Amino acid sequence: MTNVVEIKDLTYRKNQKYILKDVNLTLESGKIIALLGENGAGKTSLMRVIAGLAKNYRGEVTVQGESDPAKRKANLSFTDKLSGFGSTTKLSSIVDFYRNIYPDFDEEEFDQLRTFMNLDLNLRLGQLSRGTKEKLIIALTFSRRAKLYLLDEPFSGIDAMARKKIINSILLWKEEDAPS
Questions:
Q1: Is the N end or the C end of the chain the one with fewer CB atoms within 10 Å?
Q2: pLDDT-derived band of residue 179, with 50, 70 and 90 as boundaries?
């Protein structure tokens, strides 16, 4: 198997505090991997570095052999908590944004996920529970044809029954045709 992510000697500081120090990591293609750690351990920061969203780090980070952050973004799908959208933003507008900004956005895949997650695109972001926001994030993330999918605490706020259905669907989807 090839490596989808390679990290060598990664150090990331924020406000003069080390968030990540001398991290070395290799992730093989075709695997589902969980990154576990305590709150504040740097899991989200690591994903933001991999996704090309964090700046001012030292070390080597490649995704599919690409070290340029802009090119790394093209190879992966990571939805970062929808923080750029206000509470009055309609879900349909968020989907339109993703559709317009990502050329690999798969409309058919999103429609299937939207139906599966029971998402009403006429609702506004502020009307959603924490779990429903996570379902939207999962649907948006997996609606791209990417080589790597990064999910940051994807099941926080999602009830146990829905969590089990989503995990089983992800496993089935991976078996059928997912790259990593």
A1: N
A2: low
- Integer Cα distance of 58 and 22 in angstroms: 9
CA count, 13 A, side-chain hemisphere, 159: 5
Kindly calculate the radius of gyration of the chain based on its CA atoms and give it in whole angstroms: 16
Dmax over CA atoms of the chain, in Å, equals 46
Instruction: Write out pLDDT tens, residues 64-91.
Output: 999 999 899 888 999 878 888 999 999 9
Q: How far apart are CA 129 and CA 101, in angstroms?
A: 26
Burial (CB count <10 Å: 0-12, 13-18, 19+), residue 78:
buried
Half-sphere exposure of 11 (CA within 13 A, CB side): 7
CB within 8 A of 52, min separation 6: which ones?
69, 70, 72, 73
103 vs 90: CA distance, rounded Å: 21
Chain centroid to CA 101 = 16
